[in-house]
Design a protein that fits this description.
A hairpin with an 8-residue loop joins strand 3 and strand 4 (78-82). The chain has a single domain, classed as Rossmann fold. With 175 residues, the protein is of the alpha/beta class. Helix 1 (13-30) crosses helix 2 (46-55). The strands form 2 sheets. It has a 6-stranded mixed sheet with strand order 4-3-2-5-6-7, sandwiched between helices. A 3-stranded antiparallel sheet has the order 1-9-8. Helices cover 22% and strands 33% of the residues. It is globular and about 50 Å long. Bound molecules: 1-O-pyrophosphono-5-O-phosphono-alpha-D-ribofuranose. 1-O-pyrophosphono-5-O-phosphono-alpha-D-ribofuranose (PRP) binds at residues 41-45, 76, 97-106, 157.
Length: 175
């Protein structure tokens, strides 16, 4: 059963699970013999972060940060609202995002994290909407490329709702 506000399902729960397992295998291979710190960005990425972490086979640490933006008038101008609990100096770090759109948020986060001198810093995203990209960011791991439509589910919200959908879907335009 899909919600009435949903236009169409893009990725089912099974498709998401299968793809996350594949990406987790790629991550496990890349970081073999090392510990990996996953950094999630609240709130959207927590569903993806926990699903991904369960399938990674190298030892994993988790930390979270929250950002707040200055609104639509200032795209990409963000500040850290809740910082990491621990330092990342000398660690292998993978930033885990639910979606990369313009790339502005991601660039800010990568620059900020990079200044803390991790051993390595990578980016893993559940969804990539490259058609909206304004600046280049290197995506090391991604699960799905998506079209230029508003999507919800598996962490992604519309007015804070729909994050708990087990699938990823396009929202109807009249919402
Ligand atoms: C999303 C996502 C990224 C950002 C990407 O967060 O988690 O942080 O937008 O957009 P960009 O590439 O255009 O900068 P959102 O503001 O939806 O917050 P949420 O995770 O709390 O829903």
């Amino acid at each position: 059963m899909t919600e009435p506000a949903i236009e169409r399902v893009l990725f089912t729960e099974d498709q998401i699970d299968a793809r996350i397992r594949e990406v987790a295998a790629g991550i496990s291979a890349k970081y073999t013999g090392r510990e990996l710190k996953l950094i999630g960005v609240l709130k959207g990425s927590i569903f993806f972060l926990t699903a991904l972490a369960r399938h990674i086979t190298v030892p994993v640490k988790i930390d979270l940060l929250a950002i707040s933006s200055f609104g639509k008038g200032a795209p990409g101008v963000v500040r850290i609202a809740k910082d990491l609990d621990d330092t990342i100096e000398g660690e292998d770090v993978l930033l885990v995002e639910d979606i990369v759109d313009t790339g502005l948020t991601t660039r800010y986060l990568l620059q900020t994290l990079s200044s803390r001198r991790p051993r390595s810093l990578g980016l893993c995203t559940l969804l990539d909407r490259t058609i909206r990209r304004l600046i280049q960011v290197q995506v090391d791991f991604r699960c799905f490329e998506i079209p230029d439509r508003f999507v919800v589910g598996f962490g992604l919200d519309y007015k804070q709702l729909y994050r708990n959908l087990t699938y990823i879907a396009v929202l109807k335009r009249d919402n």
